[in-house]
Amino acid sequence: MDSGIGLLAAAAAVRRLRPDADLVLSSDPDGMPWGPRTPEYVTAHALDVARAAAAHRPDALIVACNTASVHALPALRAALEPTLPVIGTVPAIKPSVAAGGPIAIWATPATTGSPYQRDLIGEFARSVDVTEVPCPGLADAVQYADESAIDLAIAAAAARTPREVRAVVLGCTHYELVAERIRAAVRQPGLPPVALHGSAGAVAAQALRRIGAEPAPSAEPSASLAVLLSGRPAELPEAALAYAEGQLLGAVSTAR
User: Fold this and answer.
1) Contact 28, 52 (CB under 8 A)
2) Alpha-carbon gap, residue 153 to 135, rounded angstroms
3) Fewer Cβ within 10 Å of end Cβ, the chain: N or C?
4) Per-residue pLDDT tens digits for 5-15
């Protein structure tokens, strides 16, 4: 679940690990963007989106949204666990510091500077220089596959990223869909490429662990895909197919 198509990254990661896994993608186009909303708004909409997915009786629910994980994860777990394991998305700050700093964290304005993100920085990144980079407009641009708006938002965030940064944490799941464009924007002549750290792979692996399933990437791709847009059965949005992750999910899935 996510406010929009940012969930594609985690869903594609699950599909790569288990091509035989049925997937339900539940998002909220009627209520997005969640980023600039109040915590109460995000929590209410996240609960609606989660319950729409839970009606399909999944084995686990991935909250593939940093904003929802920041504001709504306790409420989601209180409402759905232990019957339905809920896996939140944590920005990949801890692995980003493994090679030393400095690092930058690209995130929505709502997540940037939040107590949640500051606590993660304090816990895992006290030994390195950290720059929090708000990225207004980038998630919306990715949501609608607006190429010019994506370029402008990435360029603006890259301009706020210190030249000496060696790693960038992608603190919004939408950003993982344009990771290579971000890498190109922050690359500095004469320096090695900047490492990017997303959370989709780790979240997918954690979901499998929570339900006791082993990765089986060679399994026959026989799974189905159900898409819910603000609770309504639908097809993958056209914008989703602009990204490799959406193409992967659309190519091997049949709606049910």
Assistant:
1) no
2) 7
3) C
4) 999 999 999 99
Element (H, E) at 232: strand 232-234
Range of the domain at 175: 93-198
Note whether 53 and 175 are same-domain residues.
no
Residues in the chain: 256
Strand pairing of 130-134 and 103-107? parallel
Q: Please give the Cα distance from 73 to 94 (Å, whole number).
A: 20
Number of Cβ atoms within 10 Å of the Cβ of 131: 16
DSSP structure class, residue 34: -
Q: Report whether the peptide linkage leading into residue 33 is cis, meaning its omega lies within 30 degrees of zero.
A: yes
Angstrom distance (rounded) from CA 225 to CA 255: 5
Same domain, 80 and 205: yes
pLDDT digits (tens, 9 = 90+) for 111-123: 888 888 899 999 9
pLDDT score for 223: 80
C-alpha torsion sign, points 90, 238, 23, 37: positive
Take residue 15 and report the two structure tokens written for it. 């599909």
